[in-house]
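ARCHIVE CARD
CATEGORY: sequence design from structure
SOURCE FIELD: tokenized fold
FIELD CONTENT:
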């Protein structure tokens, strides 16, 4: 049985409660559409936010890892360029030693060849120092968020005349020049070993960068599925809550009008 009261307007209270809920939904939809995010504060999805933050942190580490790897590649490319130039200098040493080793070469010519030979040796040592190849060294680059397997590392041997075994070459005699030819051939092999070390590290870093970039894409996608708003769905929600808001206001007005109808009974 319906009751009529001027003290408590139940219909208006119901309309207000529904309108309040509608306004919350409308504000949420507006926030998501305007920001592009489904999660705009912790209360939207606390568990999901924790997982999404983990993905975002991983992306930050991987991005820096890619920068580290690119820096490492730059360093290796500098060393590789120096090694290539040193290999050309070794070619020149071979030419000089071979010429001096000939029995038809005069002692005066050998003195001139020996002087150039010493200059080339000095240039090898200078370029080795410039490219930071004067001493054997370890190489290490951290490229991922895995504390155990996140590092790409190796070692690079020294490239000096001493390390290559040609620091004491002497072309002033035929026998000394012939010995120098043999020593330079061994030096070419030793230099090739160091070039192989540098090349292997370059290849490993390139593969590591490729993997890290793939992981960045996948982690961003995982983060997006949790954090980002579905704009199509939120646009529909925005339309729905806008209509409900207007109808709720109209219903509240109608509920408030019922009190006036009750008062008309008192006038009779």
């Amino acid at each position: 049985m319906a009751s009529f009261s001027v003290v408590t307007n139940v219909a208006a209270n119901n309309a207000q409660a529904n309108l309040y809920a509608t306004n919350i939904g409308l504000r949420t939809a507006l926030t998501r559409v305007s920001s592009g995010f489904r999660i705009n504060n912790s209360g939207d999805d606390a568990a999901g936010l924790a997982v999404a933050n983990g993905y975002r942190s991983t992306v930050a580490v991987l991005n820096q890892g890619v920068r580290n790897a690119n820096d490492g590649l730059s360093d290796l490319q500098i060393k590789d360029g120096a090694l290539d130039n040193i290999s050309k200098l070794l070619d020149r040493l071979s030419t000089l030693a071979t010429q001096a080793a000939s029995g038809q070469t005069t002692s005066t010519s050998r003195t001139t060849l020996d002087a150039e030979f010493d200059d080339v040796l000095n240039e090898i040592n200078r370029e080795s120092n410039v490219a930071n190849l004067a001493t054997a060294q370890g190489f290490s680059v951290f490229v991922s968020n895995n504390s155990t397997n996140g590092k790409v590392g190796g070692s690079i041997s020294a490239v000096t005349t001493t390390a290559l075994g040609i620091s004491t070459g002497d072309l002033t005699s035929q026998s000394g020049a012939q010995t120098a030819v043999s020593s330079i051939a061994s030096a070419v092999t030793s230099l090739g070993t160091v070039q192989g070390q540098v090349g292997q590290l370059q290849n490993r870093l390139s593969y590591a960068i490729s993997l890290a970039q793939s992981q960045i894409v996948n982690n961003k996608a995982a983060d997006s599925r949790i954090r980002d708003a579905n704009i199509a769905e939120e646009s529909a929600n925005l339309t729905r809550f806008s209509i409900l808001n207007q109808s709720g206001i109209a219903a509240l007005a109608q509920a408030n009008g019922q009190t006036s109808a009750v008062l008309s009974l008192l006038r009779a």
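CARD ANNOTATION: The longest helix spans residues 46-100. The two ends are 22 Å apart (CA to CA).
SHELF: design records, drawer C
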